[in-house]
């Protein structure tokens, strides 16, 4: 957070509003609680960011874990397992979390440009 404030960068977060409802339908209670905590964490980060004067952009969380951050190809098969991202279209490979973070960052830039266009 201090680093973001010092360098004048923003933070992009997945907008997970409503994830509890989606998760509750098919996951055990344990996962619901985890998702709830993660949602709270997002708001905590936003609160801290506002106090530090750091911009926060909420982005659409759809498919961030399945989209190739190199070519944009979307496929469930891009995720052979929990940790791995391997694009079935262009061959780009990366740790799954890193690939998802790149997608979130890219959407953050797009969202920032749109919300500050006019
Ligand atoms: Zn690709």
From TrEMBL:
One of its GO terms (molecular function) is DNA binding. Pfam families: Cas12f1-like_TNB (PF07282). Keywords: DNA-binding. Residues 38-104 form the Cas12f1-like TNB domain. This is Cas12f1-like TNB domain-containing protein. It comes from Nonomuraea cavernae. The lineage of its organism: Bacteria, Bacillati, Actinomycetota, Actinomycetes, Streptosporangiales.
């Amino acid at each position: 957070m201090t680093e973001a404030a010092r360098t004048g960068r923003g933070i992009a977060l997945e907008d997970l509003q409503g994830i509890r409802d989606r998760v509750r339908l098919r996951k055990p209670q344990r996962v619901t609680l985890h998702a709830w905590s993660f949602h709270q964490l997002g708001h905590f980060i936003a609160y801290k960011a506002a106090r530090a004067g750091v911009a926060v952009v909420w982005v659409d969380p759809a498919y961030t874990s399945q989209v190739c951050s190199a070519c944009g190809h979307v496929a469930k098969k891009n995720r052979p397992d929990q940790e791995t991202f391997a694009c079935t279209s262009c061959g780009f490979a990366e740790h799954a979390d890193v690939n998802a973070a790149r997608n979130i960052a890219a959407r953050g830039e797009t969202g920032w440009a749109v919300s500050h266009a006019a």
